Amino acid sequence: MKGRVFVIGLGLIGGSLALSIKRQHKDCHITGYDINDEQGKLAKMLGVADDIAGSIEEGAKDADLILITTPVQVTERMLELLAELPLKETVLISDAGSTKAEIVKKAQKLTDKGIAFIGGHPMAGSHKSGVSAARELLFENAFYLLTPQQHIEAGKIDLLKQWLKGTKAKFIVISPEEHDYLTGVISHFPHIIAASLVHQAEKTSQEQSLVTRLAAGGFRDITRIASSSPTMWRDILLHNKETLLQLLSAWQLEMEEVAAMLKEQDGEKIYQYFEKAKTFRDELPQKQMGAIPAFYDLFVDVPDYPGVVSEITGYLAKEEISITNIQIRETREDIIGVLVISFQTEYDRLRAKKCIEHYTSFETSTGP
Ligand SMILES: NC(=O)C1=CN([C@@H]2O[C@H](COP(=O)(O)OP(=O)(O)OC[C@H]3O[C@@H](n4cnc5c(N)ncnc54)[C@H](O)[C@@H]3O)[C@@H](O)[C@H]2O)C=CC1
Ligand SMILES: O=C(O)C(=O)Cc1ccc(O)cc1
């Protein structure tokens, strides 16, 4: 497809969308804009955008597709601004915000002017921010939720999917309210819990310094999402306030039930609590990406000798397998240590497993 794309907010998501659009539509022209000049410069340098606009007005006026990929409260302001600007009559506007109801409401002003807006949410990402973390295939196989209003012609939805084809995501159309409730349950609320677990550990660490060392493994894994952008998550919480308050009340009640089981030392109930959670969790699809990306971790048993980490990363680099994280689980001199290497996709993890097994005799596993 030819045409001009304007991306407002050249961070992880804006950058990744721009890369995937360019990959699919080589002849399109991508203009970017970011309030942070450094992100703009970096986006141009990394080939994420063909050029950088000096203002929203300049980038928007000739655009065929405008993607707003800023934190959701900024997105609201952008929609208000765009509604005041001269735009092409046929322009299609979408966003990538993690919340939808407030945004779709705000887009009404554009709709009133006959401009098509379709809310969007690619449900993959990372706790990393900024354009340098952008990846062309970040959304491969991920769900991409679209929340068009009823009056939107099907042709416009198809056009947006065409533009976004290079994401290789799976599109699902859903209402903004349903979207906010579901993402509240599986993404927004877990972020609050992750942050609260970290706060609890931090308070303990003031008395007991050992806690930070002990938290290095499993605790760090289950609280990974607490390292996400505070700006982004502040905005998400403020947008999805009602759902989150409802979920917080339900959670508090549930914690009271857990406290009661404990006080009564009701072993059977405690067992049932864990057993029911295990059954539901074990039945969740494993090979599919959900709202919070899976950890594609590979565990490598390595002997503890200097240079072993660079040896392994060297083999991976040789086969051009990108890693997203690497961690050494504490080792003692006399035992074998475990290297935990994280990948963006299951495909990369399997390639890495084969690669390490080919070049070394180290044991690898994909975990429980
Ligand atoms: N990080 C993730 O994993 C996911 C994030 N999202 C949503 O995507 C959106 C963007 O998130 P990220 O790319 O992760 O954040 P990011 O922090 O990497 O990028 C946001 C960019 O917006 C820019 N920005 C902020 N205010 C601006 C303004 N007034 N004008 C122009 N640019 C402005 C920032 O400078 C930054 O470069 C958010 O709405 C978020 O809810 C959706 C799916 C996943
Ligand atoms: O990897 C993480 O930390 C995420 O939770 C990614 C993410 C963040 C926000 C979204 O709206 C969707 C996915």
Q: What does this protein structure show overall?
A:
The chain is an alpha/beta fold. It folds into 3 domains: 4-174, NAD(P)-binding Rossmann-like Domain (Rossmann fold); 179-282, Orthogonal Bundle (6-phosphogluconate dehydrogenase C-terminal fold); 296-365, VC0802-like, CATH 3.30.2130.10. The protein is 48% helix and 16% strand. The protein has 15 helices and 12 strands. It has helices at 12-24, 37-45, 56-60, 72-84, 101-106, 108-112, 154-163, 176-207, 210-214, 218-222, 230-239, 241-263, 267-282, 308-318, 346-359, and strands at residues 4-8, 29-33, 51-52, 65-68, 92-95, 116-122, 143-148, 170-173, 296-302, 325-329, 337-343, 364-365. It has an 8-stranded mixed β-sheet. Strands 10-11-9-12 form a 4-stranded antiparallel β-sheet, with helices on one face. Helix 7 (154-163) links the parallel strand 7 and strand 8. It starts with a strand and ends with a strand. The mean pLDDT is 92. Bound molecules: 1,4-dihydronicotinamide adenine dinucleotide and 3-(4-hydroxy-phenyl)pyruvic acid. 3-(4-hydroxy-phenyl)pyruvic acid binds next to loops. It is an enzyme of class 1 (oxidoreductase).
Number of domains: 3
Predict the CATH topology of the largest domain.
Rossmann fold
Distance between the termini: 44 Å
How confident is the prediction overall: mean pLDDT? Answer: 92
Number of helices: 15
> What oligomeric state do these chains adopt?
single chain
Identify the bound ligands.
1,4-dihydronicotinamide adenine dinucleotide, 3-(4-hydroxy-phenyl)pyruvic acid
Secondary-structure class: alpha/beta
Helix content: 40-55%
Widest sheet, order of strands: 3-2-1-4-5-6-7-8
Q: What is the CATH C-level name of the largest domain?
A: Alpha Beta
Name the poorly predicted regions.
none
Name the beta content range: 15-25%
Task: Calculate Rg over CA atoms.
Answer: 23 Å
Strand runs, count: 12
**Name of the CATH superfamily of the largest domain:** NAD(P)-binding Rossmann-like Domain
String of helices and strands: EHEHEHEHEHHEEHEHHHHHHEHEEHE
